[in-house]
Amino acid sequence: MKSTSRDIRIRNCFSVLRHLIADYPTSRQYLARETDLSVATVSNLVSDLIELGVVVEVGLERSGGGRPRALLAPNAGSGALIGIDVASTYVKFEAYDLTLTVLCRIEEHVDLSEDMPEQLLDHIATGMAAVREHLGGRPILGIGVSLPGQVDVAGGISVFAPNWNWHDVAFKRLLTERLELDVPVYLDNSLKTVTAGELWFGDGRGVDRLAVVLLGTGVGVGLAFGGDLYRGASNSAGEWGHATVDPDGPRCRCGRNGCIEAYVGAPAILRRWGELAGRPVEEQAQEKAMETLAQAWKAGEDSAVRTVEAIARDLAVGVANLVNIVNPELVVLTGWVTGVLGEALLPELERHLPERVLNAALKALRVKLDEQSRNMVILGAAALALEGHLNLINTVGSRSRP
Q1: What is the CATH code for 208-371?
Q2: Which of 27, 42, 29 has its CA nearest to residue 72?
Q3: What is the per-residue pLDDT for 228?
Q4: Are 270 and 289 contacting, i.e. CB atoms less than 8 angstroms apart?
Q5: pTM to 2 decimal places
């Protein structure tokens, strides 16, 4: 679809605000240099952002001569953004001001047996009540919600959530009704929200072709080109975990055989370790079992070392296919499995990639672990709410310029 002048303006607003949040207070001239936009264009965009209440002038820059430059900052005293991460074992909440400083954190424990939409909505309602109490009277500008699985963004529908066997659940409508919300809600899956987080605040800022590989109970990839999320025709882009690498391979949770997830998702990793160690591994306590595997790898236990080598080889197959098709300049490995086992997997992954990636793509490629201390899924969900709020900016030409 061809970009309109408004699309371009909003995209440029995103770019300006990303740089401002990363480094403030700063001037219009600095933002122009960092974004490769003209000072006049940045000044117009800043006028939009000030009018929307997102940006404020906070003083003057000292000057050795000439007219002092006004300094800008995100409007920390404005409304709040809420990010919510809904998963199989928890619902996590973070509220932020417009500098993306955390105002409060709340976590609700979820039992694995609680797999009905109404049960998850109960946890969200409880958590949101606590968030609102922390915020006092501060207005909420928007709420971003991350759900696992496939999500219809426009309709706010959980199309398919394999963790809970949900099909076509109108989650946004149910959530809005349950919480009696009068603020915008932005629903997407964790692949998109974590990638939005990387674009706004992580390693993806300023990267033109980005792939974020999420390793957890399930696996997938978030893609961004030119600073924008790539969603595909039906918001299904990134279901890399369900690409088939062997039609005769192990059964995947999606019901098909030989998916990448069936080799490198958390349950597959633990099953592989159990087979090589000659003992069953308790998959219900996945995170604890994965930490035990990481400790065994550090101690040089043979079955743990062989498990890491085998998983890294399988992961290399999947990542190589991704790189050969998409040709990203940066691949970021993230997700809770990466947090536990990434130190072990990355060197082995890098060792295998040259065997399978085309030379030109390999030369342009950098692979790294996500080293952010913040929860990028929740932060990315809040970023989607911020993007939605920025879309309230006036249409190009709607206001006269000085």
Answers
A1: 3.30.420.40
A2: 27
A3: 87
A4: yes
A5: 0.85
